[in-house]
Every structure is written in structure tokens, then in C-alpha cells.
């Protein structure tokens, strides 16, 4: 039956797609108004779709709502299906589907569990449990490739390389002390300066005693005095030497050639030392010294003031469990003994705890980099504890593993992975929140000078949202 819509065009019909071959016309698919093109299984367009071996494949892809890998899309209009989600992992699947031609449907892991092995039952939970059970085809998020997980499922080539590091709040400036004035010089310099002062004082005292010119008549009215005096006494000579060092007049000057030569050498020395001290003091006052409670992760194992933890059941915790390094073993025992207090269900909980308490959260470096761009009061402490990668998980011995890995390698070679990382780390959702654009500041200053205005708006550095909320709550 032929149907027409209100505009007079045909509706609800289908077209056969045929291909001209040596043997004649061959039907390779059909097109329907409500479905679109449906190719026959195994058909490829020569020269165009040779690489799309997964054309007729439909994947159920598990994701987690973890920034920036998977997030609910911010939209004023109602969205449905895959359009509800956006993020780094979402874009990677989309780019892979463009290369391989497969279809996909996203499903959110409700409990946000990636997958860990229950030693008692031998069963996997979370995303990997669904992959093994066959209820899902793929899983992509900040899912770390580990040896234990590779025994249960297959992974593609890593789409991102990273390591474990420590997230901690930015250290505060060191408070001034009573001995801050000694900061411009090191301890060795002060010791040598004191030794030089003592030696010069002794030499000047001895030379002043031996030089006849330094002995003068204290009573000018008496032409032939019986007693002569010298200003270079045990009390006055050190005062003369320290006066030259502090640029203070002492009231007398050497008269003999030998004493003057020594005094000139000392004055030149004090000129260099004084200028260097003032320059170093100005630099020390302009730059605030920072107090780091710890500089490497291993130091956390041998202290009691800072609490530390990781994500519960994650690969980071497994790293400490399997490590043979003594400090890491101590850290793992501490985290398990205080699991209710230091192990987090989500990374967001760990970040909040870092901002509000004296707590260090151990997590992947890529996540730390993402958080640093948006939380201005936290930073990464120390280097990487290991080297690993994120991959797309699938069922063991899946036939399409090679195709998916090849697609990821192409995305890397084409620079698309780097573009997506820059997009979601530094552009979208508040990226570069804590970065200072000096170019924009210079432009604003030039505009202000051009206006010749007598009023100026003060711009302050942005702080993180959690810090603002905390301050308003406390008040």
C-alpha cells in the first residue's frame, strides 16, 4: 500500500540497494524511512570500507560518570540515548566507531565499580563482572590495565599512559622567624665571615701596636710627652672593624701605611659582602618560602600527622598490596587498618577530603592533572610511583580486539587523542580555571591606561568552588 504524508511526499517505503558486479546486479542492502541503511552481513564498499570490519556490529559500552571520562551532558533541551553523555571516553568511542563503522549504546555503571576479584568466590564485580558474564561488550573509563584484570578480560592498546601520584593541598608559606635575617647567606658563609672579622681585628690590633705612626701625643700642649697612645686598643679595634662592616662611622682612621692598606682591603671586602647581602635579602623577601610536609610518597609511611588513602577496590590500592617495597607495604597496612576513614568510594570524595582535612589522596596522575586545572588549592606532590595505562576492556579472546586496538593506534598517530585530552582537561568544564593569562592581563592594563580612569577594578585569583562553599558555610 502506498502512503503519502501531509506534504504530498511518499512515506513508509523501502528501497533496495544494489551493486553492479561482473555477474550483474546484486542486492547488498536496503533503505527504510524509519531505520535508514541496513547492509547485508559481510558486505563492504570496496576501497572505502575495507577497514570497517565491524560495520554490522553493535556494542553495549559500559561507562562511569567520572570526570572527565564520562559525564551527563549540560543541555537546556531534553536529550535521549547516547546524546545524554559527553566526555573524553565518550569521544574516543565515537572516533573509533567512525573508523570501524560499528554502532554502540552507552550504559552507566550504577555503583561506579570498575571491577575487582573476590578471592573467596572467585567472581568479579563491577564493569568487568558484566563483561565476563556477557551482559556488556565493552567498558571504557579511567580503567587501569593490570595483570590481574588481564587474566580475566582483554584490553586494547592503552589510549592513555600515566602513573600513580599523590594529591595534596598546596603548602602554606613558611612563617617568619627571629633568625630570618640570616637567610641571605648560608651557614658556611656566616662562619667564614665571623672568622674573617676576628682575624682582621687581631691583625689590625698587632699592626697598630707595631706601627710608630699610630702612636700619637694625647696632649698636644706638651711638646715632649712622656706617654704616647694608640687608637688600636683591644676594645676599639674590633669596634672599628665592625663599624666598617655595618657602614657606620667610628671616629678615627688609620694613619700608617700598613694599617691603611689593611683597612682598605677590609673596606673593599665589606662593600662586596654588604651589597650581596642586601641583594639576597631583597630576593628572599620578594619570594615566599614554602613548607612541604612531605616531598615523596614514601615519607607518608613514616609519619603520623597526615592521613592518606586511595579509592576502595581500585588498581591504586592493588599496587600497594602487591608491592614488595617496604614503605609501600607499610602504607597498605595503614590504609587497610583505617579503611573506613581513609579509603574512598569515589575520587570526588577523596578530593573533598584533601581540601577540607589534613589528608593526602593517592590516585592516577591524569586525574590529578584534571583536578589541578579546576581546584586551585591542591597540587601533585612528588613524581610517579609506577607506569601503566588505560584501555578499553572486552571479553576474553574477543575477535574484534585487534580491530579496536588498531583504531586506537590510528587515533594516537593522527593526534586525535591529544586533541581530545586537551579539550577535556584544559577547555571544557572549567579548564584552565587556575591558570593566569599574562597576555590578557597586559591587554587589560593597556586598556586601563588608554582610558585614563581614576578608578580601577581589582581582579583576584579564582579559588575552587569547594573552598568558596566551605568558607560561606563556616561563616
TrEMBL record:
Tell me which residues make up the Ionotropic glutamate receptor C-terminal domain: 61-427
InterPro entries associated with the record: Glu/Gly-bd, Ionotropic_Glu_rcpt, Iontro_rcpt_C
Looking at the record, the residues that make up the Ionotropic glutamate receptor L-glutamate and glycine-binding domain are 68-133
Subcellular location(s) per record: Membrane
Q: Which domain of life is it from?
A: Eukaryota
Q: Which GO terms describe its cellular component?
A: membrane
Keyword Glycoprotein in record: yes
What GO MF terms are annotated? ligand-gated monoatomic ion channel activity
Membrane-crossing segments per the record: 189-208, 264-285
| CDD domains the UniProt entry points to | PBP2_iGluR_Kainate
Task: Indicate where this protein is primarily found.
Answer: membrane
Keywords attached to this entry: Glycoprotein, Ion channel, Ion transport, Ligand-gated ion channel, Membrane, Receptor, Transmembrane, Transmembrane helix, Transport
Q: Which family does it belong to?
A: Belongs to the glutamate-gated ion channel (TC 1.A.10.1) family.
Q: What protein does this entry describe?
A: Glutamate receptor kainate 2-like isoform x3 protein
- Which organism's genome codes for this protein? Lasius niger (Black garden ant)
